[in-house]
Design a protein that fits this description.
The chain is an alpha+beta fold. It has two domains: 51 residues, no CATH class; 42 residues, no CATH class. The protein has two helices and six strands; from the N terminus they run ααββββββ. A two-stranded antiparallel ribbon has the order 1-2. This is Peptidase M42 family protein. GO terms for molecular function: aminopeptidase activity; metal ion binding. It comes from marine sediment metagenome. Keywords: Aminopeptidase, Hydrolase, Metal-binding, Protease.
Length: 115
């Protein structure tokens, strides 16, 4: 597999994990388990940050990488009698891109509904 196909596959895998702000647990678990699978020391702190380190004994420069694990999302505030969802934005979603976008709705029991 060439490196670009591998990168594409990894990005597709990452972006398929639902992790709106405040509900990042699936991404935290994924990142932690992926690090462990590669033999990288990993821990999750009390705030849900996944902290990894490797090559710490190296005499070269130290590098720190910080990235968000959450994504913008919406929270359902009401379901109308006709089945329409009334939502509130979580994060900075530009309203003009919402029309026609596919969404993934997490139901009360935890399963996801695509729409």
């Amino acid at each position: 597999m060439n490196k670009f196909k591998r990168l594409e596959d990894q990005l597709r895998e990452l972006t398929a994990i639902p992790s709106p702000s405040g509900f990042e647990e699936p991404m935290i678990k994924y990142m932690y388990e992926k690090a462990k699978a590669y033999g990288i020391k990993a821990e999750v702190d009390s705030l849900g940050n996944v902290i990894t380190s490797f090559g710490a004994s190296s005499k070269g420069p130290k590098i720190m990488i910080i990235a968000h694990m959450d994504e913008v999302g919406m929270i359902v505030r009401k379901i109308s009698s006709h089945g329409f969802l009334r939502v509130e934005k979580i994060g900075g979603i530009p309203e003009k891109i919402l029309l026609g976008c596919k969404v993934l709705v997490k139901a009360e029991k935890g399963d996801f509904i695509e729409g």
